[in-house]
Amino acid sequence: MKHNFGAGPGILPHEVLKQAAAAVLDFGGIGLSILEISHRSPEFESVLDEAVKLVKELFSVPEGYSVLFLQGGASTQFALAPYNLLPEGGKAAYLETGVWANKALKEAKLFGEVEIVASSKDKNFNYIPKDYKVPADAAYFHITSNNTIYGTQLQEFPKSSVPVVCDMSSDIFSRKVNVADFGLIYAGAQKNMGPAGVTLVIVKDSLLGKTGRKIPAMFNYQTQIEGGSMYNTPPVFAIYVSMLTLNWLKSKGGVDAIEKENIAKARVLYEEIDRNPLFKPVCEVEDRSHMNVCFVMENPEHEKAFLRLCDDKGIIGIKGHRSVGGFRASIYNALPITSVYVLIDAMQEFAEKNKA
Ligand SMILES: *Cc1c(COP(=O)(O)O)cnc(C)c1O
């Protein structure tokens, strides 16, 4: 039995994998694979409709927003957000909380002026800056809700008169979100929502069509809305598996229920990191992520041996990102708390063996 703490593509629910595997051979008893049917077939159209419906339901998406399933990952959205929302000669505000935020703002610079309202670069992004002002003349304010690499998370979202654009790639559907507080939400599916290959976009319709620039069809949210995410061939299988995962989440009680579980998982793990003399946390307590738990060892020479112990116990994917080092346990929606306890047991066993 493996315990998958990988940061992304991340763990998917076992039931979902079983359903997906069956659909590869025979999709819903039609005698064809999900991989070989037309995206215009009624069978796939109902998959896409269902996926959109589940997003709207799980997030209580209000009227006036469109839900899109696009390709190119969150990294493409780094460019499409300014392409579609930043007028010629306009300005956008960015909160720099890590490498992903930095990549996003670099793309925005191709389209207009970028103001970095605050950055936590001074401490290798181990906290979320809180003292800043968003310029009232900015077209939007871009934030990253969860910083996958550093293990920090915005515990509260800014309420701003400037439309908020949010990269939610690594905590989408892990917690309650009031969509009305955002102008644009985007997320690569592969951390917490489905497999790699599809990107969720939730956009407020009234923000579109104001840039004064020509936008190629595939990069234009309006074309994608008009085409119902099918301007071209959509990533059929990735959308199907995302739909199954969203359905799984709904059956578990939706975002409210999973948020409680995620908080419980994070709490027991951080408690162990704080308590265990061999390990130490890396982020400011108040900004700790409930999705990616980063920690290091008091004695870095122990790290290899601890990784080996984890490997023996089927604990997978906890090596930290190279820019932070140490360990990162990603505890996404589909990871059961029992896996977290296996990791905690390993930490305790290691501490016992290596007592000073
Ligand atoms: C993984 C990740 C990305 C990059 O996603 P791609 O889909 O690979 O482009 C962007 N932002 C955040 C917060 C991420 O965790």
Indicate the topology.
Elements: E1 3-4, H1 14-25, H2 42-58, E2 65-70, H3 73-85, E3 91-96, H4 99-108, E4 113-119, E5 141-144, E6 146-147, E7 152-153, E8 164-167, E9 184-188, E10 199-204, H5 221-226, H6 236-251, H7 254-275, E11 279-281, E12 292-297, H8 303-312, E13 315-316, E14 327-330, H9 337-353
Parallel strand pairs: 1-13, 3-4, 3-5, 5-8, 8-9
Antiparallel strand pairs: 2-10, 6-7, 9-10, 11-12, 12-14
Helix pairs in contact: 1-6, 2-6, 3-4, 7-9
Bound molecules: pyridoxal-5'-phosphate.
Explain this structure to me?
The chain has two domains: 14-251, Aspartate Aminotransferase, domain 2 (3-Layer(aba) Sandwich), CATH 3.40.640.10; 254-353, Aspartate Aminotransferase, domain 1, CATH 3.90.1150.10. Helix content is 35%, strand content 17%. The protein has helices spanning 14-25, 42-58, 73-85, 99-108, 221-226, 236-251, 254-275, 303-312, 337-353; strands at 3-4, 65-70, 91-96, 113-119, 141-144, 146-147, 152-153, 164-167, 184-188, 199-204, 279-281, 292-297, 315-316, 327-330. The strands form four sheets. The chain has a seven-stranded mixed β-sheet with strand order 2-10-9-8-5-3-4, sandwiched between helices. Strand 3, helix 4 and strand 4 (113-119) form a beta-alpha-beta unit. The longest helix has 22 residues, at 254-275. It is globular. 45% of the residues are buried. Pyridoxal-5'-phosphate is lined by residues 8, 73-75, 100, 144, 148, 167, 169-170, 188, 191. Residues 8, 73-75, 100, 144, 148, 167, 169-170, 188, 191 line the site of pyridoxal-5'-phosphate (PLP).
